[in-house]
Write a structure and sequence with these properties.
By secondary structure, the chain is α+β, with helices and mostly antiparallel strands. The protein has helices at 2-14, 17-43, 75-97, 101-123, 145-165; strands spanning 49-50, 55-62, 127-135, 138-139.
């Protein structure tokens, strides 16, 4: 019972004015990701767009998690992975609610990207990845704008932890 009361108080705190800015950041990242994916889906779905010697835009439908891990044609595995991702997002929201300002910023950046990719898993049953970074014949994993923000957020989290300990 105390847990439910505590959760209710934290949910009320989610909409405090100080958190509105972070929520706007999450929504902004989500819509930036949506906009970029819609542009690629609508304009480059049948072709590779050459940007320069190191970057192409090439639409790939990722049914796995980051870097195509756990890709499978099994509906059960896909649904379990989606459930796991949803659970991680719920934990991130909880950590966001109980965190201080710097951590809220970091969690906001990660959540903006995570919610963008999570949305795609429902809307398309796959995540559209399209940024193809390469050097000659070596290609890095294809990724999207949401992945960029998730990576930036995780890097900030790691750096923050490193500098707090030194």
């Amino acid at each position: 019972m105390n847990f439910l009361i505590s959760l209710r108080q934290k949910l009320k705190g989610l909409f405090l004015i100080e958190n509105i800015y972070y929520l706007l950041l999450i929504v902004s990242i989500f819509f930036l990701d949506r906009f970029s994916k819609l542009q690629i889906i609508n304009n480059f779905s049948d072709s590779i767009y050459y940007v320069n010697d190191y970057i192409n835009l090439n639409l790939i439908w990722n049914i796995g998690i980051g870097f195509g891990l756990l890709s499978t044609t099994s509906t059960l595995v896909y649904n379990l992975v989606t459930l796991l991702i949803g659970s991680v997002i719920i934990f991130l929201i909880y950590f966001f609610m109980v965190s201080k300002k710097m951590d809220k910023l970091i969690y906001s950046i990660i959540l903006g990207g995570a919610v963008g990719n999570f949305y795609d898993r429902f809307a398309y049953k796959a995540v559209p990845d399209f940024v193809d970074i390469h050097y000659k014949n070596f290609h890095w994993f294809t990724f999207n704008v949401a992945d960029i923000f998730i990576t930036i957020g995780i890097l900030f989290y790691i750096l923050k932890g490193y500098f707090e300990k030194t």
